[in-house]
Design goal:
This protein is mainly β. Among the domains are: 84 residues, no CATH class; 67 residues, no CATH class. It contains one helix and 18 strands. Strands 3-6-7-8 form a four-stranded mixed beta sheet, with no helix packed on it. A two-stranded antiparallel ribbon has the order 1-2. It has a two-stranded antiparallel sheet with strand order 4-5. It is flat. It starts with 5 loop residues before the first strand and ends in a 21-residue tail after the last strand.
C-alpha cells in the first residue's frame, strides 16, 4: 500500500499531511540520543548492565536513547536493557579501505575469420542490342482486336419507405456542476460543495413524411461490344556481342523463366 504525504484536491490545491506522532518521536529522540563512547563492560543483546565503563570517562549511567560501542557491535539503551542495532564483525578487510587495485588475465582464445569461395571463368556470346518491331499485317488470320466500343444499358428498381423527419432539433440540457471547496485552519482540512443547477432542454418536433430509398430491389444491365480485328506481326534485329566474365562469385544462379501471352510473330 502506498504512503500518503500530501492531499491534492479537485481544485488542484495540494496539502501536506502532518504526522503528529512522528513529530513527538523525533522530538523525543533529538532530546535524548547521545553516543557515550567505547565501553569495556561486556554487553550482549538484552543485557541490563548499567552503568557501564566508558574508555576515558569511567563509569557512566546510560539514559533512554544513549549509544555505546562494545568490540565490533553497537548498542542503544531503551530505558531498561541494551539493544544491538549494528555489527561490523562480518565485514572483510576491503570494507575499511578507501581504494584497491590489481590485475586480471582472462582465459580463452579469439578465432581468426576466414573466407571460402569458388573461382570461375565464363565466356560466351549474346545479342544485347537490337529492336523489336510489331505492326499490323496487310493480310492473314486475325489474332488481336485492339479497337472497339462497349455499350451498356443499366436498369435499376429501388426499394422505398416513408419516413417522417424532425422539423426542429430541440435544445440540449444544460447544467452547472457543484464546485468543490476546501480550506485548512490550524492544520484541519475542511471540504465542501457549492450549489449547482440543471436545465432539461426541449425535445425535437416532427416534420412532414417523405419517401426515401432503402435498398435495391433489382438491377440488370445489358451491353454489347464491337471492334475491328487485325493481325499483328513483328520482327527482331540485333548485333552479336561477345562477353567474358572472370572473378570469384559467391551464391547461386537461378534458371531464368519467362511468363507472357503467346502470339504469332513473323520475322522479316
Amino acid at each position: 500500500m502506498a504512503d500518503i504525504k500530501q492531499i491534492k484536491l479537485p481544485n488542484n490545491i495540494i496539502y501536506d499531511i502532518v504526522d503528529q506522532g512522528a513529530r513527538d518521536l523525533i522530538s523525543h529522540l533529538d532530546g535524548h540520543t547521545a553516543f557515550l563512547g567505547v565501553t569495556t563492560t561486556v554487553i550482549t543483546e538484552g543485557s541490563t548492565t548499567n552503568p557501564v565503563a566508558i574508555t576515558g570517562k569511567g563509569n557512566v549511567t546510560a539514559v533512554d536513547g544513549d549509544i555505546v560501542a562494545y568490540q565490533s557491535a553497537e548498542f542503544i539503551w531503551n530505558g531498561s536493557a541494551w539493544q544491538e542495532f549494528g555489527d561490523l564483525s562480518g565485514l572483510g578487510a576491503l570494507a575499511f579501505k578507501d581504494s584497491v587495485s590489481g590485475s586480471f588475465t582472462p582465459q580463452g582464445s579469439v578465432s581468426r575469420p576466414t573466407f571460402t569461395g569458388d573461382s570461375m571463368n565464363s565466356s560466351g556470346s549474346y545479342k544485347p542490342e537490337g529492336s523489336v518491331t510489331i505492326s499490323k499485317a496487310a493480310s492473314g488470320t486475325t489474332n488481336y482486336t485492339p479497337e472497339g466500343s462497349i455499350s451498356v444499358t443499366p436498369t435499376v428498381t429501388l426499394e422505398t419507405e416513408s419516413i417522417t423527419p424532425m422539423a426542429t432539433t430541440g435544445t440540449l440540457p444544460t447544467c452547472t456542476l457543484p464546485a468543490f471547496t476546501a480550506s485548512v485552519v490550524n492544520e484541519v482540512l475542511t471540504i465542501g460543495w457549492s450549489g449547482g443547477s440543471f436545465n432539461q432542454g426541449s425535445l425535437p418536433t416532427k416534420g412532414t413524411a417523405v419517401n426515401v430509398a432503402t435498398g435495391v430491389e433489382s438491377a440488370t444491365a445489358t451491353g454489347t461490344f464491337s471492334g475491328t480485328a487485325v493481325r499483328l506481326e513483328g520482327s527482331f534485329s540485333g548485333t552479336n556481342k561477345t562477353v567474358s566474365v572472370s572473378g570469384t562469385p559467391t551464391g547461386t544462379i537461378s534458371t531464368p523463366t519467362f511468363t507472357g501471352t503467346a502470339c504469332t510473330v513473323t520475322s522479316e
